[in-house]
Amino acid sequence: MGLLLQSLLITATATRVFASCAYGTFLQPRATEGEEVPVSNFGYIGNIADTDSQGPLNWAALESPANSACATGTRQSPIDMTEGVFQLVEGSDIQVQVNDMPEGAEFENLGTTVEVITQGGTLVSGGKQFELQQFHFHLPSEHLDNGTSQAMEMHMVWQSAEQEIAVIGMYINVADGGAVANGTAPAAKRDLNHNSRFFRRQAAAPPAATAPTNVLETIFSVVDQISTPGTKVKTPPLVMSEVVDVIKANALQTYSGSLTTPPCSEGVAWHVSTAKLSVSPATFVRAANVIGFNSRFPQNTPGQPNILMISALGSAAAAVAASGAVPA
Ligand SMILES: *[C@@H]1O[C@H](CO)[C@@H](O)[C@H](O)[C@H]1NC(C)=O
Ligand SMILES: *[C@@H]1O[C@H](CO)[C@@H](O)[C@H](O)[C@H]1NC(C)=O
Ligand SMILES: [Zn+2]
């Protein structure tokens, strides 16, 4: 709670509008109808020695003190999701609902990500209720799945009436070239015909990592129309139940972390699904050509010092060693 308040105070001092993972929440309200899609002032490339760099090592310096949590926060995201850093919550222990978008949805290129503006959805988790604002994509994944990077990660961003933020993260894999698009294996189909409850549950399980997720295929079918930052396009109709069913049917790894983009505000309720979505190889290439690289480096274990603070001590020690002041 203290951390959340602190982040809110930090955020309140931000002077410039920029788009991040929190775009469309109270932290960065969406541009009103007719206004242009804002393009982010931060980036992912560049080292700390280059003071013009907009990369993650310089996020705190880009906007001071608004972004200071990026360099000093001790519960920063993303992290390596290893045993012990998260609590498992069953999908059936949260309530999640997302409205379909039969007329399609606005799909924007914010420069740092591509984002779908949603049209309603509710998450109840930990006794709190949140409303869905948007979802967007990172490439490669920001969280690591027990040490392993995944092809992409989708972030569904939710906000409560008390202005708290929850994010559902879903890894996205690249499907096998030969996979069918609807993800139902012939064997499972046959079993479903037996009408047994057991096989019904099997059938509701997430598509194998090899089967492309239809709604992702639909969204990315138009991504090349927003290859220029600041542009937007309308997607074809989106059926969200496909993703919601996967979330509900599988456990989620939860922990309290931060936004993975400036201002890196903490107090974010992370829910990383243990199930994965997929896109076809061709769709992955289409998405990668527009998104490029937009993944913050893994942060320290929650509760441990910020990696950039440790690294600053390391560079100081290296400088001393290089000066010859300290015997090797
Ligand atoms: C995570 O990886 C380690 C080895 O690096 C392994 O021992 C452990 O079982 C894995 N945990 C899960 C949940 O897969
Ligand atoms: C679903 O997969 C089956 C093969 O398992 C295929 O015959 C069918 O056409 C597919 N349906 C769609 C909508 O892709
Ligand atoms: Zn994000």
Structure, described:
The chain has 328 residues and is an alpha+beta fold. The protein has a single domain, classed as Roll (Carbonic Anhydrase II), CATH 3.10.200.10. The protein contains nine helices and 14 strands. The strands form two sheets. Strands 2, 3, 4, 5, 6, 7, 9, 10, 11, 12, 13 and 14 form a twelve-stranded mixed beta sheet that branches. Strand 4 and strand 5 form a beta hairpin. The longest helix is centred in the last third of the chain and has 16 residues. The chain is globular. Zinc ion (ZN) binds next to strand 7.
Describe the structure concisely for a colleague.
With 328 residues, this protein is an alpha+beta fold. Helices cover 23% and strands 23% of the residues.
Number of beta strands: 14
CATH class: Alpha Beta
Sequence of secondary-structure elements: HHHEEEEEEEEEEHHHEHEEEHH
- Give the CA-CA distance, first to last residue: 46 Å
CATH fold-level topology: Carbonic Anhydrase II
Features:
single chain, 328 residues, alpha+beta, Carbonic Anhydrase II, twelve-stranded mixed β-sheet, two-stranded parallel ribbon, 9 helices, 14 strands, 23% helix, binds 2-acetamido-2-deoxy-beta-D-glucopyranose, binds zinc ion, EC 4.2.1.1, carbonic anhydrase, zinc
Blueprint (SSEs and pairs):
Layout lengths: L1 H11 L46 H4 L6 H4 L7 E2 L5 E3 L5 E4 L7 E4 L4 E4 L3 E5 L2 E11 L5 E2 L6 E9 L4 E10 L11 H8 L3 H8 L9 H7 L11 E3 L6 H8 L3 E7 L7 E8 L3 E3 L1 H11 L15 H16 L6
Parallel strand pairs: 1-8, 10-13, 10-14
Antiparallel strand pairs: 2-12, 3-6, 4-5, 4-11, 5-7, 6-7, 7-9, 9-10, 12-13
Helix pairs in contact: 4-5
The structure holds 2-acetamido-2-deoxy-beta-D-glucopyranose (NAG) (2 copies) and zinc ion.
One 2-acetamido-2-deoxy-beta-D-glucopyranose (NAG) binds next to loops.
